[in-house]
Amino acid sequence: MADRRSGMVQSMGYANPSSSVVSRAVAAAAANRRQSSMRAGRASKQYSVSAFYSMAAEQDVEVEDDLAQAQRILRDLKSKISTQSKKNFVLERDVRYLDSRIALLIANRMALDEQNEVASHLEEHDDQGDEHYPDHRKMQQYGNLFFLLQSEPRHVASLCRLVNLAEIDTLLQTVMFTLYGNQYESREEHLLLTMFQNVLAAQFETTTEFTSLLRANTPVSRMMTTYTRRGPGQSYLKTVLSNSINGLLEHKDLNLQINPLKVYEEMVNQFEEEGRDLPPGMPRSVTPDVAAANPDVIAIIQPRLIMLMDVTNRFLETIMQSLDQVPYGIRWICKQIRSLTKRKYPEATDIAICSLIGGFFFLRFLNPAIVTPQAYMLVDRLPGKHPRTTLTLIAKMLQNLANKPSYAKETYMIPTNPFVEKNKQRINRFLNDLCEVGDFYESLEMDQYMALSKKDIVLNITLNEMYNTHALLQQHIDVLAPKKDDHLRILLTEAGSAPAQVPRKQNLPIVLPLFSRWETPIQDLTTALMSENNITQNDIQYMEAKAIFVQLVRSLPYFAKKPLDLHRIAESAATSKDAQMVRKGIKVQDMLKELEAANVIDRKDNYALLAQEIKQELVHLGDLKDRVMQESSSLESVYKTILDHNNYLKSQLESYKAYLQNVRIQSSGGEKGSKKSVGIGVEVEHSGKSSKSKASKPQILGPYKFTHQQLEKDGVIAVTNVPESRKGNIFFTISCPMPGTFIIELHYKGRDKPILEMDLKLDDLLEKQQDNIQVLDLEYVQLSVVRTLHLLNKTFVTKSKNGIFS
Fold first, then answer.
1. Cα distances (angstroms) measured from residue 215 to each of 169, 219, 601, 710
2. Which CATH number is 275's domain given?
3. Which of 372, 413, 391, 399 has its CA nearest to residue 244?
4. Which Gene Ontology molecular function entries are recorded, alphabetically (predicted)?
5. Domain assignment of residue 378, yes or no
6. Is 662 inside any structural domain?
């Protein structure tokens, strides 16, 4: 056991490597228990084992009551969120990669072989991966290696600091969503946070200037941002920000632009739209200083400033009232930032420390969701022009509030200073309050100890995740494990060279059993705890009896409605028709006799002490049921959001797949300067000669009909100029005459011909997206580029047997 203790103690920064694995946990917890109604003498010895029996009572698979059912639902939901979060992270990484490559395709700067290489990123898995599957010996080696990495986070922390920005996303996928992928399991979450502590401590040691701490785009900052995108962080954003942002989006005509230059441009545009000449002394373009001094601009901005500060103040109130909802892990990271800053920079002021905490909480967590709520699935549609501007200004004001305001480049923000001055002390108190959470070291020691008694610790991991981590460890082994007898070096030496990355089709997920090379699995947890904590057999029997009685009352709830008669409960169970109940009833009858004989309990007072503790446990479980159901309700919304985001990402990849297919069709067999249609059976031209393909005519899909209300509800219509009274008479049709080409027509009921017709190319839509153009102007309406792409994929890719782009 000494090896495990030493490694774990080192990973958490404890000074005494020879201390007992659970003794500190037991002592700390027992100190709290002594203040309860329990006998002080028993509390210090019983707590560790009692905790295990309490946990067993909470998740008892043998009991079928409302709590057990609610817990199963919650566990399934948490598992789904963890799994789906990883899928989304992988898809997001693919989309980022393809974004950059498609940009080159659009600019016609990529050769055909490069196009095929990009296309390979879109290939699906197949089942032919046996030749890449590790044999039994390799599986054991990787099981040892990943157990060590998971249970001693210092190794992963060091690796995250050593890799470069090009490698960090792949490593973060493995760390955040595989190695510690169970986002709601305390042991994995606490180990991940321990890793963060190591990373942050090293960052503070190596950073030379206070002002640059945690601000640059480094692997560490990328880690912190990725952590906030896990399930608990997404749940918080959805709960706290969604209503405020959606409420603002309803006021789509509310213009709170306060940049004088942009306000001046709005004035000029208004004159031109109304067909009026600009007044004398009002040139078409001016400098920012001239615009800021214009009396009309000042008159427009003043009321906007007041309203902007009021709206931002409402956002701030919502955030500050959400303190108790902020995920524990995010608060704990804030706590580490404060602690490390005080140790490294003892002269740092409270304001300076709060600016660092705010840099993480606002800059990395809240503000990205406020500025781009559609990317966090907080809104159902793309924000219009004015709400988008307002959300950006709100984020700037909140950031200035958390930091020391600096307006070197944005002097137009200076008038918002009264908001900062009014709320600076409040926000600093909030940021300090964020840090007020307890540590988890004692409970983590317990969890680590319990892990040794489990036989089913596994990782769901892909081959490339294993091989990539192996390769990175190998590359940096001299820094990670410089000594010959370091466990990490021993395992890597035995594993040999890292295998090459397998093709995408063969990158199958596998179940990797984890176990330690240097630790003996604990066969009987309670006996092991007895030996380490001087817990007697009577203590064990007392707590086991309590746990069984809790199970019996949960199975026979009518006994809970009156004072607990333990003798009667045991007799009722022992004489029931359920064999399992009979066994439990007979067992606790014997236990009551043995405990009474040992003078631990007394029948004369109706086993008062034991009955009281059982009643307390049942009250706790009753409260637990309410909390479980409340948490399930909240997480259902989060899971739906994550699924929606997954569908959006899949749609994005379908767009790229369609574009790449078009490019391949156009490029195949064509020489430079020649043309080849993307359609089948359409006239083809090579080297100045024309011919007709013998193939059949292209498959024309559509037209498909969509109402104005439907497209507006789905967010495809971002902005509309159609009066409310006429929306019911407006509808759209979309058809696809050939791959990659779409005809969008706007119709008015009763008219034979369309009011408007647009020929839309997939290439053009993707190019607009690359240029960050968010809307497509159809004169009467503006369509969201992203949502339009999604609609086209959903409508047409599923309508054709072979896909419209094949």
1. 18, 11, 61, 43
2. 1.10.506.10
3. 391
4. GTPase activator activity
5. yes
6. no
